[in-house]
C-alpha cells in the first residue's frame, strides 16, 4: 500500500460524556477505534484537543499515518452549520458558536466535516445498513434525549435554520410532562431514557412495587437501560407498563412522520432501542400503523438499526467520504 494514498476515513461521535473515533476504509469497514471521555466541563478548547488525540489514537491503532486519511467527519450533539463547520449550540457540551472545524483542522491537518449527531447517525444507517437504496428515509434515535435525521432523495435535509429533525420536541401530549426545552408534553419528555427513568422513580416514590429497588436500592440512582430489560425478564409489571407507554408514544411519533413525510423506511436506533428492541419494536410498529392515515403506511418499513454505538462513527466516515469526493 502506498504510504501517501488517501484511502482512509475517520468518523467521530462527539457526545456529552464520551468521544468515539473509528477509522474506516472506502467500503465503510471499521479497521480500528479509540474512545475517550469528553470532560466537557473543561471548555471547548480542551474538548477539541481531546477529539484530536482520540482521532490520532485511532489512526495509530491501525498503523496508519495522518496523511493517509482523506477526511474526518464529526457528529456533534446540537445545532451545527455544515457550511462553516461551526457548532451553533450544543447544550450537552455547553457550547455556543464554537468553530470546531477550523480549530480541529489546525490540530490534525486533515479536512474536517461537521454535522448534527442524529444526521450523522442517520447517514451511517443509510449507507451501511440500507446500502443507500431508499430515496427517502427517517432515522429516529431514542437515548438520553430524542433526535432524528431526515434523508430526502438520498441527501440529508437540514431545513431553513439547519435544525430539521428535532422530532424530540414534537408535542404529543398537550399539557404533558415538562421537557428540558421548556415546553410540556414533548416526545422527548415522554419516551426518552431520561423520561422513562423519571417515570419509574416517581412511581417508586408513590409506592409502586418494582424489582428494580431490590436490584439497585430505593433511589434507583445507578439505573441503566439494561436494568429495565432485566426487570422485564423477571416479570416486573410496573416497568412493563412504563416501557409499553414509551413504545406507544414512539409509535404515534412514527405515524406523524409517515403522515407528514411518507418515507420509504423509518429506522429506530439509540441506546433505548439497543437495549429494549425486543420489548418495544412490535408495539411501536403496531401503534404506528394504527395512527397513520389509512393507506399512507402501505409498504413502509419500520425497523431497528443493528449498528448500535457504531452508527455515529460510521456516519462520520460517510460524511467525510461525501465531503472529499
Model description:
The protein has 325 residues and is of the alpha/beta class. The protein has helices at 44-61, 100-108, 117-129, 187-191, 193-205, 211-216, 225-233, 237-261, 271-291, 310-323, and strands at 8-14, 18-24, 30-37, 69-76, 79-81, 86-90, 95-98, 112-116, 137-142, 146-152, 155-156, 265-269, 301-304. The chain has a five-stranded mixed β-sheet with strand order 3-2-1-4-8. β6 and β7 (95-98) form a beta hairpin. The chain is globular, with a radius of gyration of 20 Å. The mean pLDDT is 95.
| End-to-end Cα distance | 21 Å
From the 3D structure, determine the CATH topology of the largest domain: Nucleotidyltransferase, domain 5
User: How much helix, percentage-wise, in residues?
Assistant: 40-55%
> Order of strands across the widest beta sheet?
3-2-1-4-8
Total DSSP E strands: 13
Q: Tell me the domain tally.
A: 2
The helix-strand sequence is EEEHEEEEHEHEEEHHHHHEHEH
Described by its quaternary structure, the protein is single chain
List low-confidence stretches.
Answer: none
Question: What does the largest sheet look like?
Answer: 5 strands, mixed
Looking at CATH, the homologous superfamily of the largest domain is ATPase, nucleotide binding domain
Nearest-integer average pLDDT: 95
Rounded to an integer in angstroms, the radius of gyration calculated over CA atoms is 20 Å
Work out the strand percent. Answer: 15-25%
The CATH architecture term of the largest domain is 2-Layer Sandwich
Using the alpha-carbon principal axes, give the shape: globular
